[in-house]
Amino acid sequence: MQKDTWMQTLILSFQSLGVIYGRLSTAPLYVLESIDPGEISSPDEMHELFSFIFWTLTIIPLLKYAFIVLKADDDGEGGPFSLYSLLCRHAKVGLIPSNRGSSKILNQEEEEVSSDPSKGKPENKARKAIEKYKSSHYLLLFLALLGACMILSDAVLTPAISVLSATSGLGRSMAKISKVFSSRETKDHVANTLKKYVPTPVACAILVCLFTLQHHGTKRIGCLFAPIVITWLIFISGFGLYNIIHHDAQILRAVSPVYMLRFMKKINLRHWKLLGSIVLCIAGSEAMFADLGHFSKKSIKITFICFIYPVLLLTYAGQAAFVSKNLHVDGAFHLSESIPNRSLEHVFAVLSLFASAVGSQATITAGFSIIHQCQALDCFPRVKVVHTSDKIFGQVYVPDANWMFMILSIAFTIGLHDISELGKATGLAVTVGLLVTTCLMSLVIALYWEKHLFASVCFLLFFGSIEAIYLSSTLTSFFHGAWCLILLFLFFMTIMASWHYGTLKKYESDVENKLSIEWLTDYSPGLGVSRVPGIGFVYSDVDIGIPAFFTHFITNIPAFHQVLVFVTFKASPVPYVHSSRRYLIGRVGPKEYKIYRCIVRYGYHDNVRDTDDFEDHIISSIGEFIAREEYDQEALNSPEGRMIVLGTPLNDGSGLITLTETSSGECGPNLGESESRRGLLHGPSGSGGSPPPPVNRKRVRFMLPQKSPQMRASVRQELEEIIDARESGTAYILGQSHLMARLGSNLFKRLLVMIYVFLDKNSREPPVALNIPNAALLEVGTVYKI
After folding, report:
1. Which pLDDT tens digit goes with each residue over 275-304?
2. Cα Rg, the chain, nearest whole Å
3. Where is the K+ potassium transporter C-terminal domain (predicted)?
4. Per-position DSSP letters for 647-667, written without gaps between them
5. Which backbone phi and psi does 5 adopt, to 5 degrees?
6. What distance in Å separates the CA atoms of residue 147 and residue 290, rounded to the nearest whole number?
7. Cα–Cα distance, 686 to 361 (Å, whole number)
């Protein structure tokens, strides 16, 4: 993988300010505001709380994420599912096998042959123990799903609390302006009305605008939002420095951990609840890892260490210094109150409004990345994923998820319309997400990095104990807002668990009902199966063996085509796959049966499935495979035989030239024109009588290069038979499998199947919907009772 230049790193660092760090930057709006002023009894307690803020920012985002977790990326992707994916590949813990079909075949081409550094090492006891017990597999999947649900819930709650906190400041600003222009009798009434009724409607309007911008992609949004975040950080850090100097310079002494110990010695339920608000200062830390696919590790790390971290410490120190000297002043805990110049308060209100909208971006893009990863592991329904960059694969936009986030976020904004309650729910989501990452990361250290078990345990105990303290403090406020996180968790977990369960059962049924190729080649003649003229394309996800729906088809209609091609699509994590490397062709069964397998590879910007000449490309590729089958030195091995990636140059130059034409004229020397009844040139026969009028249809013909060796007769004959089959007609066979719960199944199982069936019917169609004529399309349905 090519390394980014410093210029590219600086550009990504600039963009990351508008995407990843918007939330961390706007957290000062609601960290102290979510605290009940009556819970702080003295300035010393404010110093002690700042000590917690300092060390929490230092230990979690800086030490844990910037220096450790960012190194555990999965091909540039981050988040709990990337850690789970690493564990699935390096330990046999995946509930759906990761080595499906062609994966091993494709890896022969993509991986260089090298010695395995792990050979010769003693067997990892931790890996052996985890692989042995099935319960540990389910536990790891649950952790991954839990972490994903927390990030998705955060994508709903963070926009609500960020925007609502800013509009609350706008309401206070408008209330002060109204007092100037209102009469003495009505000014208090008008001010209270503005404070009460303005924030929520304005927040909803801003949320609609924010989610509407998402389709522009990470790059444009980052460039648009980054200047806002920079201006915002410079603004609040400048006033933070002023407050430190003017109000309480002693706040800098609170960086000593002695202040935390002093707080813990007098701990009680009131103090414990305060920590639930303090944890919001690291809300957005998980986005540093979850949004990794949108940027690079170096850009994220440099931006946080050199800019975000020192600026946030300065801001929190200044705010704490102001509060410690103004504990009994009404509204002192609001960040806007710490602005020393009253004339700048209205500027602050407008700037915070823009910054709060930006602050939501980190969790929204993290939600898109998580859904993209979940789809790859069959844990989320099929939805449209739009890749917004040709250079960075992880920059994605999910339209359906975007509108779902918007609706839920507006619903919670209207339903709760209270910053304190939203803060409690957000704090719980943050701490659970952090704890899940810690648990999965400790396993990655032991199983993937293969460090000593002691290092893994130390990581788990050190970071896990800190996060567990914050988790327990947020749980004390469960009935004061944190309960709404449970609703979001149940919503997302039901969707993901049902889809994963249904996909797993469907895959197991496909494998169980799949038959070997010998059934089709050896036993089908005895069942009276006949071959009919034409060529049949069978589309399925099964890339080894005969798919269950096709055996169902043969059993009920004992016939299949003269030439049969099993086609499977495989997505590659690149923008484009060159046409010369797109097809992986192999033979299924003996030559005389003329059954082939084609694996089509495409990038996330390719439109290979929407082309009208897709059929011609497949036939041309099969023709080239036949000509090169016995001579290609770069053929790959598969359980069914040799497979060839087309387009690889041959040493002897014996490849075919394949052409397509839309008219019936001749075009150069062709194969077998004088030796065959029709040869391989698809033009009019030219025999006696008036030639038929030309027909505008696409046809394939094969030609030899001028300096190629003579073709063997058996190869020539097989190519002629393919062309004959094409002239006889083409049919497309698609499989549609359905799940049903068996009679007597328990209620939980029936509920999972029912939800999966609903999601399957309403999700995006499988990626095999070609431009197929309705007259040539045949869908075969199979029902699996589980």
Report:
1. 888 998 998 898 899 888 778 899 999 999
2. 32
3. 533-786
4. TPPPSS--PPEEEEESSS---
5. -75, 170
6. 10
7. 68
Q: What is the DSSP letter of 200?
A: H
CA 134, CA 139: separation in Å to the nearest integer?
Answer: 9
Helix (H, G, I), strand (E, B) or coil at 760: helix
Q: Give the confidence band of 526 by pLDDT, cuts at 50, 70, 90.
A: low
State pTM to two decimals: 0.77
| Structure-model confidence comparison of residues 417 and 662, the more confident one | 417
Q: Residue 524 has which token pair?
A: 């089908």
Q: Which of 724, 741, 772 is nearest to 623 (CA)?
A: 724
Alpha-carbon dihedral 6, 11, 13, 14, rounded to 10 degrees: 140
Between CA 629 and CA 180 the distance in angstroms is 88
Residue 745 pLDDT grade (very low, low, confident, very high; cuts 50, 70, 90)? confident
Half-sphere exposure of 208 (CA within 13 A, CB side): 6
Q: What is the pLDDT of residues 586-598, one digit of tens each?
A: 888 888 888 898 8
CA dihedral 632, 636, 639, 641 (to 10 degrees): -10
Can you give the pLDDT at residue 770?
52
Q: Which residue has the higher pLDDT, 291 or 389?
A: 291
Alpha carbons 421 and 410: distance in angstroms, whole number = 15
Whole-Å CA distances, 510 to 93, 459, 504, 548 = 21, 41, 10, 6
What angle separates helix 399-416 from helix 483-513, to the nearest 10 degrees?
A: 150
User: pLDDT digit string (tens) for 97-113?
Assistant: 444 445 555 555 544 43
The residue type of 492 is F
For the cut 70, the answer to whether the pLDDT of residue 118 exceeds it is no
| Phi, psi angle pair for 390, to nearest 5° | -80, -15
Angle between helices 399-416 and 199-212 (to 10 degrees): 170
Which phi-psi region, left, alpha or beta, contains residue 106 (left: φ > 0; alpha: ψ -120 to 50)? alpha
**What secondary structure letter does DSSP report for 83?**
H
The structure tokens 């103004």 sit at 326
The two structure tokens encoding residue 563: 């030439």
β partners of residue 585: 598, 644
DSSP state at residue 167: H
User: 């023709």: which residue's tokens?
Assistant: 623
**Contact partners, residue 339, CB within 8 Å, separation at least 6:** 239, 345, 348
Residues 126, 87 contacting (CB under 8 angstroms)? no
- What is the enclosing helix (H) or strand (E) of 783? strand 777-785
3-state secondary structure of 99: coil
CB-count exposure of residue 618 (10 Å: 0-12, 13-18, 19+)? buried
Residue type at position 356: S
Cα atoms in the Cβ-side hemisphere of radius 13 Å centred on 339: 20
Sign for the CA dihedral angle at 536, 542, 547, 553 comes to: negative
